[in-house]
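The authors assume throughout that readers already know how a fold can be written as discrete tokens. For illustration, here is how one protein appears when written out as sequence plus structure tokens:
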Amino acid sequence: MSKQYEKETICIQSGWKPKNGEARVLPIYQSTTFKYDSSEQMGRLFDLEESGFFYTRLQNPTNEYVASKICELEGGVAAMLTSSGQAATYYAVFNICEAGDHVVLSSTVYGGTFNLLTCTMKKMGIECTVVDPNADEEELHKAFRENTKCVFAETIANPALVVLDIEKFARLAHAHQVPLIVDNTFATPINCNPFQWGADIVTHSTTKYMDGHAMSVGGCIVDSGNFDWSRYPEKFPGLCTPDESYHGITYTEKFGKAAYITKATSQLMRDLGSIQSPQNAFLLNVGLETLPLRMERHCYNAQKTAEYLEAHEKVAWVNYPGLKSNRYYELAQKYMPKGTCGVISFGLKGGRQAAAEMMDKLKLAAIVTHVADARTCVLHPASHTHRQMNDEQLLEAGVAPDMIRLSVGIEHINDIIGDLEQALR
């Protein structure tokens, strides 16, 4: 679709473009396989000499159209869907890392991401250095090694709500000849486009705001096409030398700016298989159509709720980048002037026990593991999503023991605040 269209229009019109007599709404291609008239043509598909669909684990039309819509929203050159946000994170890093390599990781990322990179991938021989995203550049430079292959961070950290200084991290990564990978789940491409600020690869848990209705788990990886892998062939041999598992193809030579996503699809998805189901991709597409409308309401409701909590006598602290008192307010205004997200974190003067009691008294807001859908929900990260971390790791991740993560939905703001009021009372 033409770049002249605004994001609201892209969310509705991009991706599936029906021809004369075809279904107006994106169909669900609920098929594992696709028929061809000749063996030769099928062979060319397997050789990556032609593009097309032959097995849903590698590509499916429903998934392809939805991925292209997200790609356009982010301003990238190629994208792929995965079965979950965790799979997207894993593929994004593992696509350029192998045993003996090293990753620089922001300390405030989602607990599952932290565990994946510091524990699980460590067992695969990939080391990780955790850094404070608020540290100055001189300090951050010390984290890099000769074998560093990428930097991973989040535009808005879940649940610490740290706003990443994307330009600073992009400078650092590029100074050490590696890409910056950014998880843009909380901000969504409606409120932030990391590629505009120097990021190279973006990941999403599409399970959150993109789906928006807590119906389908999924993930997405988008490549900007801006990182020149071929400049550093010794650092990125997987992209710059022949892949013996795929007919000796050198991805950068054959696919140019699409090299990274092509490798992730034809190699990692082929071997590991974390594909998003066409049914889930269809539901994701329905969610994407209203994403701009919902993000506007999420941000409005969250701003009002944060202001209410900040003024409440029983609340010890509130963390929301939209508050002028917030340490990340200026960064949020720079990178996300239209709004940040619908998630707030706060603590009560009564501490951890008071937080548990207050959460149990909520009637409209539900205690669920999920975050960032149409319904207001609440969680205690130290007891739930970050339960695998010790106290030292919790503090490093920006998760206080008394932290309540409130995901503000799109209900009427009076009802959201009314529920908090009665619970706090």
The first strand starts at residue 78 and ends at 82.
